[in-house]
Amino acid sequence: MKPRSLVAEALGTVLLVFFGAGAATLCFGFKVTGTSVAAGVVMTALTFGLVLLVLVYGIGPISGCHVNPAVTMGFLAARRISLSDAIGYWVAQLVGGIAGAAGLYGVVHTSRLYRPSMGLGADGYGQSSIIGANAAGAFVVEIVLTSQPRIRGHWSGSSGAFGTCSEPLARIGRSLG
């Protein structure tokens, strides 16, 4: 594992968390999009997408631009990286995520409009959910949305290439290549 890859992963995760969660905080905490939930969702999605686009070109050649432990898990499940490399990436992503959230907290905490009840772009269930989903509903939504097949003109079912890993991990791995 090259230290340059770990630094790239940490930096990429810092930027993704700072800007992505920052956009969500602005939309849903500070209400910069007014009362329009749809505008907030679109702004947040575009922010994540554009940050990832920049990161893919910027750090992709260095580290592969995983910037998400689930993506690293997919690479591990697809046997594209070793376990020791995956652990290094996970540590770098954890450090980057904490640093990005700390930076975001430092920025928004200085605003006189900030209230601790706003959160930092976190989602939730119950009263913290836009749709009011309880814990069981939130769990079901998460399972359904993360296990949907990737649309690429065909159903991307598991093949024998992924061994005994679970279907969601196989799909994550497949979506990367």
Tell me the name of the CATH class of the domain at 3-122: Mainly Alpha
**Mind telling me the CATH superfamily name of the domain at 3-122?**
Glycerol uptake facilitator protein
Question: What is the CATH architecture assignment of the domain at 3-122?
Answer: Up-down Bundle
Helix content: 55-70%
What is the CA-CA span between the terminal residues? 21 Å
Q: Provide mean pLDDT, rounded.
A: 81
- Work out the radius of gyration: 18 Å
Unreliable stretches (pLDDT < 50, length at least 5) are 150-165
What is the ordering of alpha helices and beta strands?
HHHHHH
Topology-level CATH name of the domain at 3-122: Glycerol uptake facilitator protein
Largest sheet: none
- Please tally the β strands and state the result: 0
User: Looking at the structure, what is the overall shape?
Assistant: globular
Q: What's the helix count?
A: 6
Class inferred from helices and paired strands: mainly alpha
How much of the polypeptide forms β-strand, as a percent range? under 5%
Would you kindly provide a written description of the structure presented here, covering whatever features stand out?
The longest helix is centred in the N-terminal third of the chain and has 27 residues, at 3-29. The chain is mainly alpha-helical. The protein contains six helices and no strands. The radius of gyration is 18 Å and the shape is globular. Helix 3 runs antiparallel to helix 4 and helix 3 (69-77) crosses helix 6 (167-175). The relative contact order is 0.16. It has a domain at 3-122: Glycerol uptake facilitator protein.
